[in-house]
Amino acid sequence: MKILVINTGSSSIKYQLFSMDNNRVLAAGNLEKIGEPEGLHTHEVLDKGEQKTVLYDPVQDHETGMNRIVSLLTDAETGVLKDKSEVDAVGHRVVHGGEAFKAPTLIDQAVLEAIKENIPLAPLHNPANIVGIETSQKIFTDAVQVAVFDTAFHHTIPPKAHLYALPYELYTSMKIRRYGFHGTSHHYVAQTAADLLSKPLESTNLITIHLGNGGSITAIEKGKSIDTSMGMTPLEGLIMGTRSGDVDPAIHSYLIRNSDMNIEDVDAVLNKNSGLKGICGRNDMREILTAAKNGDGKAKTALDMYVYRIKKYIGAYFAILTTVDAIVFTAGIGEHSTDIREYVCDNLQNLGLILDKTRNVSVEKGPRQIQSDLSKTKILVIPTNEELKIALETKKLIE
Ligand code: ADP
């Protein structure tokens, strides 16, 4: 069985073609800058010694882009398929499933309409995801189309954690509540963590910490999400590359009343010019760590704030979970930054967390334990793999 996993953005299509006989990636690529004068398309064939193709010619729209992906996948040189009909299913990452979608779903017209109804909740993401689905329906006419939602894993969060203390009608009439995101990643690393600890996921309590450009942290009780830091949108919670995370909501009206900013400007500031970038002018964690080590005061402040916010959430989630088998670091920063893991775990022995500094810096790459033998709670590093999770969920559904 072959499954194509697609993650469509407003000007990009990321894709991975999996052979589900051995869960291997056959080919993968990222088509960026759709609609711009110069495109950027990288395509790799993994079974042919990671042979890489890079194309710069412009791609006017998503359909043209998807057709080019098909050409590359079926080309004698760059391809891995004889014909596009070999693709049995297409798994789509869909950011916002709202309250309607609690699990991966076969896409039909009604489902597509329901995803469209969620556009106001994710105005940047869902329209692009819909274009990806509609284009793929046109091109892969024989394949089953499946939507895997970023929000679905968090549908188990109870009302006391998913409601905001606003007038209740704002929940019933406008669907204002916490949905949570990165669900595919939190679910994938939770399952991998349970496997590593040789425990069924259904009896494992975890705090999973996804630290990429976006960041979120989830409290998992008996394998189910019971709270997460992102909210109605991916802006709430941890400090991120360019997003503020938690702020006093009165800041919005204060800025509008007392500066020349309008609501669009405030939205842009909070999403694009805040977080690490807002404090120290950079959002790449590698650069920030280097700058802080070289004495850059703002980089040091940004780093301190970033780590402090994560610690606060870890403390809060320990309080609601009562017992925690492990905390799990994942995504770009969580998987690769030995410094951030060390700063986050520093002085958490009262929570039963003691890092082993040698294990933390080991060059090992896969899922691993990095706590000291004296640590009551395990500390894990688990590389996330959202694409594989989407492929596996798609396979499960169509079988
Ligand atoms: P996205 O959320 O866009 O998928 P990633 O999960 O790839 O992003 O994470 C990107 C972040 O990971 C960037 O801030 C980058 O600097 C950081 N990162 C990657 N490798 C390292 C490393 N070795 N040390 C510190 N940070 C790293």
Outline:
With 399 residues, the chain is of the alpha/beta class. 38% of the residues lie in helices and 20% in strands. Bound molecules: adenosine-5'-diphosphate (ADP).
Task: Explain what this protein looks like in three dimensions.
With 399 residues, the chain is of the alpha/beta class. The protein contains 15 helices and 14 strands. The chain has helices at residues 62-74, 109-117, 126-139, 159-162, 168-174, 183-196, 250-258, 263-272, 275-280, 285-293, 297-321, 331-336, 338-345, 357-360, 386-398, and strands at 2-9, 12-19, 24-32, 40-45, 51-55, 89-94, 105-106, 144-149, 206-211, 215-221, 224-228, 326-330, 368-369, 378-381. It has an eight-stranded mixed sheet with strand order 5-4-3-2-1-6-8-7, sandwiched between helices. A six-stranded mixed sheet has the order 11-10-9-12-14-13, with helices on both faces. α1 (62-74) packs across α3 and α11 crosses α13. The protein is globular. Adenosine-5'-diphosphate (ADP) is lined by residues 212-214, 241, 284-286, 331-333, 336-337.
Please describe the structure with a list of short key phrases separated by commas or semicolons.
single chain, 399 residues, alpha/beta, eight-stranded mixed sheet, six-stranded mixed sheet, 20% strand, globular
